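User: I'll paste a sequence; please echo it back and then give the predicted structure.

Assistant: Echoing your sequence first, then the prediction.
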Amino acid sequence: MYDTFNIQEYLAEGVELIVKDALKATFKNPKESLFLLKFSKNAKKATEIRKRYEKDGQNIPAFLIASITSSCNLHCTGCYSRANNSCSDEIPSNQLSADDWGNIFTQAREIGISFIVLAGGEPMIRDDVIVKASKFSEILFPIFTNGTMLNDDYMNLFDKNRNLVPIFSIEGDEEITDSRRGNGVYRQLVNSMEIMKKKNIIFGASLTFTKGNISSLVSNEFIDKLRDFGCKVVFFIEYVPLNKQTAAMAPSDRERDMLFSKIDSLRREYDDMLFMSFPGDEKTSGGCLAAGRGFFHINSHGGAEPCPASPFSDVNVKDTSLLEALDSNLFKSLRDEGILMDDHEGGCVLFEHEDDVERILNRVK
């Protein structure tokens, strides 16, 4: 698989592009620019570490997604975390401690992981973990948050530690956002953005795109509004169906092609902003990047999963290292059997092949 597509070269080019665009976006922000220049040097070192592992037959992704809590203060319509029971209102038990996460961050740094997305639930519930993450300046931590828990302590933390970058989830205008997330959430989001802008702290927005809303989300009218709010980073997150009934909402190749084409033009038009998509163009990346090809997921209890949208695991990082988790039977089978390269209509290839994932999991147990 890696003979026909050099995943490390692809990831290295992606990291270089991200840093280059981020530097342009923060040109007038000295604190951010200084951090990104330092981060750029660390990212190059991390790339060399990953290449050394690749020579020994071990692929190390540049990205890790860490769901640091199973708790959330909102009940958003269509939340896949609640749908797959990885998020609930019950008091969490057996979750990883801040020290556990610190150990994971240390291992990630040592093996060349440059980006760790902090997710949940609502990650800002775990201020202990976010404070721990601030100590790892070599790693960039985008924090995907609903924006309702911002306070003075967090503002001071973000100001002092530029490797922590809040990414606020927003669905569109006030009516659309509140209809999914609850009354008043949009105003809280805007208020949080305004505070960040006044304090000259970089933040971003996370936009979940579906077959029906992609045109409005990539419109200049909406991007202009985000820029006015002070947003410097925009993540377009592909909608993953909760079940077969919602599969029709998932973007098809047509919507993905529209997004990638529009992102190219947005990068030219808005050189003071950074635009990214997740999971990205699978045609360009040689297939799905889950299961350690380009990223993987650790849930709040330590289970190493291919992707947040595919909550299956056969190892726990409490009992094993990140290197061993990346070489788990489940991850290896998904990579070696070609499932990640398979064509799919829309949404997520692992969602469409959920039966195969469960079959592999049962076989390797």
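The chain has 15 helices and nine strands. Residues 304 and 345 are 26 Å apart (CA to CA).
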